[in-house]
Amino acid sequence: MNYALVTGGSRGIGRAVCTQLAGMGYFVLINYQSNDEEAEKTLQLVRDQGGDGELLKFDITDAAAAFATLSAWMEGHAGAYIEVLINNAGIRKDNLMLWMTGEEWTRVLDTSLNGFFHVTQPLLKNMLVKRFGRIVNIVSLSGIKGTAGQTNYSASKGGIIAATKALAQEVAKKNVTVNAIAPGFIRTDMTEDMNEAEWKKVIPAGRFGEPEEVAALVGFLVSPAAGYITGEVISINGGLYT
Ligand code: NDP
Fold first, then answer.
1. Which of 32, 108, 233 to mutate to test ligand 1, by most ligand atoms within 8 A of the CB atom?
2. Nearest-angstrom CA–CA distance, 226 and 80
């Protein structure tokens, strides 16, 4: 059995990634924070693909919870390991810097940037020992170019981009690749409050992207064909300048 973990797998891009990986034969560990109902729907979609998976509920901002849950999983699956990790969970708490609260800053950094560390660090050793691993970090156009009103979000995604490049160099010899995917506007709950009709005027492709389009790119990056791609940030944004 080959195992993959997707953080934030209950909805949006994470859900599409779970079904993509299930279709590729992975047993999918679906992490999420609180939305049991949507997480169950993802698990059903995974099973509809002919695959299987399980829910792994924990808050990735909580280092102790992440460590305890992942350690318990590893102890319960001696001989197996999680070879694919998709760091996807993320949140927005937009505000102009002038008005931004400490809570808005910290919560966004805790989720994307610290969450990346809390989940990746415990899983890395097995990937190195087994000499195979695939880590894909879902970042954002904001982490490349910066977006006004999102200094917290841009900083968190920019931080993961730098971490992706650094970690890729540490682990490349062990056949572990680390890449980032930077989506533009993708149709999910996160972009629900955005005026698509207005925004699509500035997107060369003239539309928002679909979660499945991001998931297809994840599928390629974890496949054997992508074994020589590491430390990269790949944009998927309908032609927006990055
Ligand atoms: P959604 O808001 O649709 O889903 C967010 C997911 O993250 C949910 O599964 C949620 O779980 C989970 N999550 C949030 N916080 C935590 C936490 N502390 N611990 C565990 N899970 C958590 O987001 P999207 O699918 O739109 O975004 C996915 C990723 O893609 C994010 O990193 C986002 O920044 C990035 N992205 C999205 C873009 C877009 O246009 N949609 C553009 C660029 C990047 P629960 O259901 O339990 O709340």
1. 32
2. 23
Instruction: For 175-185, write each residue's pLDDT tens digit.
Output: 999 999 999 99
Q: pLDDT class for 9, splitting at 50, 70, 90? A: very high
59-90 burial, b at 16+ Cβ within 10 Å, e below that, comes to bbbbbeebeebbeebbeeeeeebbbbbbbbbb
What CATH architecture applies to the domain 3-236? 3-Layer(aba) Sandwich (3.40)
pLDDT tens for each residue of 26-48: 999 999 999 999 999 999 999 99
Query: Which sequence spans correspond to the domains of the chain?
Result: 3-236
Mutate to test the pocket of ligand 1, among 11, 31, 116 (most ligand atoms within 8 A of CB): 11
State phi, psi for 169 to the nearest 5 degrees. Answer: -70, -30
Structure tokens at 129: 């020992």
The HSE-up count of residue 191 (CA atoms within 13 Å, CB side) is 20
Q: 46 with 27: CB under 8 angstroms?
A: no
pTM reported for the whole predicted model:
0.98
Structure-block tokens of residue 84? 């694919």
